[in-house]
Amino acid sequence: MTRLAGLTLLLLAAACAPMRNAPAPAPSPAAEASRTPRAPVILISIDGMRPDDLDRGVTPHLRRLATQGVRAEAMVPSFPTKTFPNHYTLVTGLRPDHHGVVDNTMEDPRMPGVRFTLSNTAAVTDRRWWDQAEPVWVTAEKQNIRTATMFWPGSEAAIRGVRPTRFATFDGKVSANARTDTVLNWLDGGNAEGFGFVTLYFDDVDHAGHEQGPGSPMVMEALAKVDRAVGRLIDGLAARRLDANLVVVSDHGMAPVSASRVLRLDQMLPAGSYRVVSSGPFAGIEPVAGREAELAQALLQAREHVECWRKADIPARFAFGGNTRVPSYFCLAETGWTLAASEASAQRTKGGAHGYDHQSPDMRATFIASGPAFKKGVVLPAFDNVDVYPMLMQLLGLKPLPSDGKVEPLLPALR
């Protein structure tokens, strides 16, 4: 493999029918003048990739990136260890409690009757769910750095009135190679559109992990597939003579689960006293009016394999519970155990899951980086994922907004 070529983004508008691009207005002379010769940054997420997945012998391109650049022993995700909360943390530097995307499924008392779920397109594109924070691409666009996002959570919404220059509407049927080709098409002509920040998202490993669990044959196949797509990106950048800083991350790890390790909420709690907002590795619960005391008495008693709290009493180490979107009661299962709302959901428990304590080894995430801004052969000790944001902003030459992260843990990796 040639040495890492640069990373920048160009969205393929016509080659992928399921995708829709935001209009790309011609840059103004002022915008042209504001551009810097910095190498573009390409942020790649491999959803659900554990740090030890890099050592399973099926990811030669990712291994080469790590060898020629930087890898971390692990990256500690934020709590809860879910997809949307941690993807937004990576691009804002804020804990979920601070940026407002507190779960993949959530409610907001200021938006009665509205429920945020991954399958609810109207909610996912509603800026009100995202406006508590400003992601990298919004700040960059405001400062005349053009951006492009391939399926990054939040990028379909006009956050604070701003969208990426190019973005794609999420479609899980689009293959890993097609996603890569979209980015390469955006970058055609030697990055003629002048993208400074690009994102690329792969969910194959996460899907396989949920289906069969970590380290399973399906996960191995998914890792190999995504690795080939990353190799395709590297080769495509080299062919375009583009030098970029490539940052590969994951949002969380994966823990094995089974139907033999399930706690049923309908057996723990009085019927009719509660409403389940979300369940799985953790459960968010709202009381039914007039039944609060009854629910609290049942919910807060000591049990094996689970801890439950009023939101105000969630331990400080989770940095969670202050946001209005966090349910009134919150239960967290021991890693590998599942909180099921009913018998039917209990019977469906299999494979793998995430959402557990962010300090659990099974929840650890991946970090790899390579490019002109990075040293070679560096292995960083574990660091928090909130620290990725200030590093990205430094690579882009932008002043970071106030956040929970700090760039210092990553400075040993930077030239």
Automatic annotation (TrEMBL):
Signal peptide: none annotated. Pfam families: Phosphodiest. PROSITE patterns: PROKAR_LIPOPROTEIN. GO terms for molecular function: hydrolase activity. It comes from the Bacteria. InterPro entries: Alkaline_phosphatase_core_sf, Phosphodiest/P_Trfase. This is Type I phosphodiesterase/nucleotide pyrophosphatase family protein.
